[in-house]
Amino acid sequence: MLQALTAILLCQLAGETISAASGLPLPGPVIGMVILFAVLAIRKGVPKDIGAVGDTLLSNLSLLFVPAGVGIMQHAARLEDEALPVIVALVVSTLVTIAVTALAMKLMGKGRQDGPEAPAGRGQ
């Protein structure tokens, strides 16, 4: 289990290194996740120990939101001052996300029939 956690953290470290060295506007952990995904895709499967570590991290995911909550509480006064722009940004981004998702679903569903397809080769 320690080896699996080390592998995950090495992917994050590689992502941080790439982000810092290249100046990409992507966070290091995101680049690290892409690296981990690529490695697992090449292996064509998730090793049992990495899956177990991932499950453990996911089961305790709420703990990882504590620093974000503390940051929000520290900047509560600033959020109060800028409440309107924050609310507008949240509403607009939500509506754009819904619209883009609907468009993607519509484009992906083109060419499909609504009902079940008739079995091929049977004359009725």
From TrEMBL:
InterPro entries linked: LrgA/CidA
**Where is this chain's protein located in or outside the cell?**
Cell membrane
Species the sequence originates in: Jiella mangrovi
Is Translocase among the key words of this record?
Answer: no
Q: What Pfam families does UniProt report for this protein, alphabetically?
A: LrgA
Origin superkingdom:
Bacteria
- Which residue ranges does UniProt annotate as crossing the membrane? 30-46, 58-77, 83-104
For this UniProt record, give its keywords in alphabetical order, as a comma-separated list.
Answer: Cell membrane, Membrane, Transmembrane, Transmembrane helix
Instruction: Identify this protein by name.
Output: CidA/LrgA family protein
Q: Does the UniProt entry include the keyword Metal-binding?
A: no
Among PANTHER family, the record links this protein to: HOLIN-LIKE PROTEIN CIDA (PTHR33931:SF2), HOLIN-LIKE PROTEIN CIDA-RELATED (PTHR33931)
Q: How does it sit in the membrane?
A: Multi-pass membrane protein
